[in-house]
C-alpha cells in the first residue's frame, strides 16, 4: 500500500513569519495537532518545517516564553522528514518510528506538499485491515461449522 492511499489531503499550512498564536488558532479551528510550514518554490508549496501543539506547550508555554516574541520560523522543527506519495506505508511507519515522529508531510516528485500522514490515520487504516482479517477467519469458521453434520 502506498502513502498516497492513506494520507490526509487536508493539510493546515502556515508560513515562517506566522505567529505562534496564529498557528495555535489554526490548530484549534481545524482540530489538528500541527501546522506544516511551507515556502512557495516553483509554483509548489514546499514543506520546510512543522510545528506541533506539543512543541508550543513544551518549548514556550511550559518555559513561560513570550509567544509574541517568536515566529513559527523560530519554533518549527527544522529536521523535517517527508514521505513521497509512492512510498510504502510500512516502510514509512518504520521511518517515523526510527525518527520518533507522529506526523510526516507527504510530497510529490517535485517536493510539493500533497498531504500529511499521522499515526492516528495509520491506526485507523490498520485497525480496519485487522478487522477485515478477523472477519475472514470468523467467516471461514462459520462456513466450516455449517458444512459439518
The level 1 CATH classification is Alpha Beta
| N- to C-terminal distance | 41 Å
Fraction in beta strands: 15-25%
Q: Helical percent range?
A: 40-55%
Helical run tally: 5
SSE succession: EHEEHHEHEEH
Can you tell me the CATH architecture?
A: Roll
Compute the number of structural domains.
Answer: 1
Arithmetic mean pLDDT: 89
For CATH, the homologous superfamily is named as CBS-domain
The largest sheet, given as strand count, sense and whether it forms a barrel, is: 3 strands, mixed
What does the overall shape look like? Answer: elongated
Question: Which stretches are poorly predicted, pLDDT < 50 over at least 5 residues?
Answer: none
* Rg over CA atoms: 20 Å
Q: Strand pairing plus helix content: what structural class?
A: alpha/beta
The beta-strand count equals 6
At CATH level 3, the topology is CBS-domain
Structure description:
The protein is α/β, with parallel strands linked by helices and 149 residues long. It has one domain (3-118): CBS-domain, CATH 3.10.580. Helices cover 43% and strands 21% of the residues. It has helices spanning 20-30, 53-61, 72-75, 89-99, 119-147; strands at 13-14, 34-41, 44-52, 83-84, 103-107, 113-118. The longest helix is centred in the last third of the chain and has 29 residues, at 119-147. The model has no long low-confidence stretch (mean pLDDT 89).
